[in-house]
Design a protein that fits this description.
Distance between the termini: 56 Å
Oligomer: single chain
CATH architecture of the largest domain: 3-Layer(aba) Sandwich
Mean pLDDT: 89
Low-confidence stretches: 1-44, 356-360, 559-563
Shape: globular
Largest sheet: 8 strands, antiparallel
Number of strands: 17
CATH class of the largest domain: Alpha Beta
Radius of gyration: 23 Å
Length: 563
């Protein structure tokens, strides 16, 4: 075939791209600057442009949260860095409002809202490999966590300490910090981030692709730092991450990244609501908080233990506690037994084995005595319990807060009151508690962009329902509960000695609005603390025209010397 031949299918895609304000890599003609990342701009690497009327369109204008629906002129599927440059360059020149999607798990309207004209979808960029030149593992932004875990572990025996919601895309998960069941022993995902490939827009609307590393002499090191917890959709288009654990030596790929335990001890307990009094409820959660406060330090002998605790609403039937620890560490069973006994002390509640009837962790029925499982099997089973990934009609409300110290009694009596209400008939309402601390707290607050480095656990206020007519009811319930729970700190998890703000990967637009955030504490302080000013300077340097923005994006600030 003649190399200049353009077949009918290519011509149609190019024509659609121009009409929608998006080019493909074949039409963009954009080349990265000298010394920056390069990708061969060939047509096969270009993804299609999907417009209204295409049968694929309806599935691509919404994510996991069905409350938010977009109506873009087009969805451009991105397949390479060159493809991303071409699409971004054309969208910027034509003045189109863009948004970015990797896995579609954003809980707010950052990707899907009526103002967005072009969605740049990275879900087809999902390759995981080892890069000999970088001496690091490369992961594309559209790769889902389940695929990443399996590829890294089966290929090289390594992993990333990421989340349990396995359909989450790497793109946003990493940019916000990334944590999971191994984080107490291995740190956050971004603690292992070596480099990031980002397509940015300068003040003259020039588009370029940059590789930014954590090397001290890298002129783009600040851009790397911004992607260690600065949040997605802020600085540019991420087309690749590279991971290498700090201090890794040699050239053996298996030595460049942390390894998970070969086997883990798991326990899945159910605390039936028919045994729970208000005082027993308060005691159980005070026990949980006290243990995590006492064991939040990096040198804790219990840092291998991590729990996911679904404190479900009363009509759900009970509270569900999943716990896990490295089965290979000395006295692993004794330590896990000690932890579980500490939680149950003086509660008057006798836990029972998890069953399918309990409605939680259905892939793990009958586990009561701690059971040793291969790590990858435990990962798969826990991932099957993700309520957002499994519910195609999920309408989600979500709030959160870090805890440096234990709950107050007021907070727990508030939780009991709201979780005992009779007007909750939706699919999922819970106070979800997740172990934090340990290795996470080894770094300083400014070592990465994510600043919460002194917490013991995290609380997530979750409400999921299916009927649009119930939106007002459940959103009011969630807002009232959050305000009452944190009434002692002006209705928010203040950045004080007890609480420590919020996690940017659980965005909460309410906190940007004075009618809901009456504390006087800016939302930027709650999510970024003292790191926000530095993020603003980086934003001004790499996105001065504020091309990448959404309802909780970083506002550019004039670049000044220092940090």
């Amino acid at each position: 075939m003649n190399s200049n031949h353009v077949d009918r299918r290519e011509l149609l895609i190019r024509s659609a791209a121009v009409a929608a304000g998006v080019t493909t890599a074949a039409t963009a003609g954009v080349v990265a600057a000298s010394g920056e990342a390069r990708a061969t701009p060939s047509f096969p690497a270009a993804g299609p442009v999907i417009t209204p009327g295409d049968p694929r369109y309806p599935a691509l204008i919404k994510g996991s949260n069905q409350r938010f629906l977009g109506s873009p002129e087009a969805i451009k599927m991105i397949r390479s860095a060159a493809d991303a440059r071409g699409a971004l360059s054309d969208a910027v020149r034509s003045g189109k409002r863009i948004s970015v999607r990797s896995g579609g798990h954003c809980l707010e309207n950052f990707t899907y809202n009526p103002e967005v004209q072009i969605v740049l979808d990275f879900s087809e960029m999902n390759h995981v490999d080892y890069d000999v030149r970088m001496r690091a593992f490369s992961v594309e932004p559209g790769a889902q966590l389940s695929n990443v875990y399996q590829a890294l572990y089966k290929g090289w025996g390594v992993t990333l300490p990421g989340g349990v919601c396995h359909s989450v895309g790497v793109g946003g998960h990493v940019a916000g910090g990334g944590y999971g069941m191994l984080s107490r022993s291995l740190g956050l995902v971004v603690d292992h981030l070596y480099a990031v490939e980002v397509t940015t827009v300068d003040a003259r609307k020039g588009v370029r692709t940059i590789v930014a590393t954590r090397e001290a002499d890298d002129p783009h090191r600040e851009l790397w730092w911004a992607h260690t917890g600065g949040g997605g959709g802020n600085f540019g288009l991420v087309t690749k991450y590279w991971f290498r654990t700090p201090g890794a030596k040699g050239n053996n790929p298996s030595d460049q990244l942390v390894s998970p335990p070969g086997t883990v001890l798991v326990s899945a307990l159910h605390f039936p609501w028919d045994q729970i009094t208000e005082d027993g409820f308060v005691r159980l959660l005070l026990n949980y908080g006290a243990w995590h406060e006492a064991n939040k330090h990096p040198d804790s002998p219990y840092r291998d233990i991590c729990s996911l605790f679904n404190v479900n609403f009363k009509h759900h039937g009970g509270l569900s506690l999943y716990s896990q620890t490295d089965a290979t560490v000395p006295d692993a069973r004794e330590k896990l037994d000690t932890y579980l006994a500490a939680l149950q002390k003086d509660t008057g509640i006798t836990p029972v084995p998890m069953t399918k009837a309990s409605g939680e962790l259905a892939a793990m029925p009958g586990i009561f005595e701690p059971t040793e499982l291969p790590w990858l099997r435990a990962v798969r089973m826990l991932g099957a319990s993700d309520p957002t990934g499994a519910n195609p009609t999920a309408r989600i409300g979500f709030k959160n807060g870090y805890f440096r110290e234990n709950f107050t009694e007021h907070q727990l009596r508030s939780a009991f009151k709201f979780l005992s209400r009779d007007d909750l008939t939706n699919d999922e309402t819970a106070l979800v508690l997740f172990s934090f601390g340990g290795k996470i707290n080894e770094l300083a607050a400014d070592a990465r962009a994510i600043p919460q480095r002194d917490s013991g656990f995290k609380a997530m206020f979750q409400c999921i329902w299916s009927d649009e007519q119930d939106d007002a009811h459940y959103l009011k319930f969630l807002r009232d509960w959050y305000a009452d729970f944190y009434a002692e700190t002006q209705g928010v998890p203040a950045t004080n000695g007890v609480t420590d703000g919020c996690y940017i990967n659980y965005p909460d637009v309410d906190l940007t609005k004075p009618e809901f955030n009456t504390s006087g504490i800016p939302w930027t302080e709650l999510f970024y603390k003292d790191n926000y000013a530095r993020l603003q300077r980086i934003k001004a340097a790499y996105d001065p025209a504020n091309v990448f923005h959404h309802s909780m994006s970083i506002v550019p600030k004039r670049w000044t010397s220092g940090r």
